[in-house]
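User: two proteins, same treatment. go.

Assistant:
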Amino acid sequence: MSPPQPPAATPPRRSDRSPWNWLLIVPIVVPLLVPLYNQRDPELFGWPFFYWVQLVFVALGVLTTGLVYRMTRRSKADQAVSARAADRPTRDGGR
C-alpha cells in the first residue's frame, strides 16, 4: 500500500463579485430615464436630440463594458496557474 499523497494544490477560484461590475448598471439605467432626452432640440447634423443621444448611449455601453473588463480581468500569473491545473490529471481518474 502506497503512502497517502497530499491533496493537489487547487487553482484560485475566480470570483465575479468585483465592485467594478456595479458600473455595468449605468448603461442600463441611463437609457431608461426617458424624460432626460425626450426632446427634439438641440439637433446634430439634422438629427433630433432623441436619436443622436441614443448613439451616445451605445458608446457609453461600449466604454463601460471595456472599462469593467480591463479592471476585472485576471493577471497572466493567475491564468497560467489555472491552465496548469486544467492540464493536470485528477486522482480519481477523471470521474
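Protein 2:
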Amino acid sequence: MKQIEVTILGQSYRLGCPDGGEDALLAAVDAVDREMSAIRDAGKVKARERMAVLAALNLAYQLAERPATVPPPPKAAAEPAGAAAAPAELQALITRIDAALGDDGRLL
C-alpha cells in the first residue's frame, strides 16, 4: 500500500492508498474538499470538525439518493430488518453527533 499526500481545506493529510486506487481516492478527496469549502464559505459553521461531519452527511445523502446500478429485488422480497426505522435511527445519530460536538450549535 502506498502513501499519498492530499490537502483538504488547506490541511495536509498522508493517506494510505491501495495500488491502482489513486484516482478513486483523489476523487473522494476532491469531493470532501468541495463540500467542506462550500460549508465554510456559507459562513454558518466555523469548527472544522463540524464542517467535516456536515460534509460527510451531505456526501452520504448524495450517495444514498443516486439511482441503484443494480435492479431492485422483486416485490415479494422482504425489506431488511430495521429498514422502516431508518429515519428514527438517523435522527438518533444526529442527536449523538450534536452531543459529541458540544454547545457549538446543532447540525440541523
